[in-house]
Fold this protein.
Amino acid sequence: MSATAASGGSGAKADGRSRPLALRLSLDLVRFVKDSAREDDTSVTAYVRGLIEAVRTTYGLPLQVVSTLRKDAAALGETWPEYMSHVLFQRYEMVVKHGVAFDAQAEPRDGRKARRTGAGRAA
């Protein structure tokens, strides 16, 4: 899934206009961004815009959820990136223990895919 799709937004200003932003990146980061955009079949600009929007909106999580998670990170003495790494590692440990997609709900009888919601739970 593209970063733009993950964030649920276009990243453009509310007035519909965008502004240029020049960045200096290492060659490794440039390769990563270009390769990732190509894999997502999108432009580099759309890919980077999507990444930034996803981070800005904490992947579209409700504000109450983000507020609670940020309080938890602070209580643990972790920065937000450290906390995100911590949470992802906990998920990894659960996957290793229980198997890939262990908490996915079986497909509904009508043949549609189960919709994922919240902290890895199917709805």
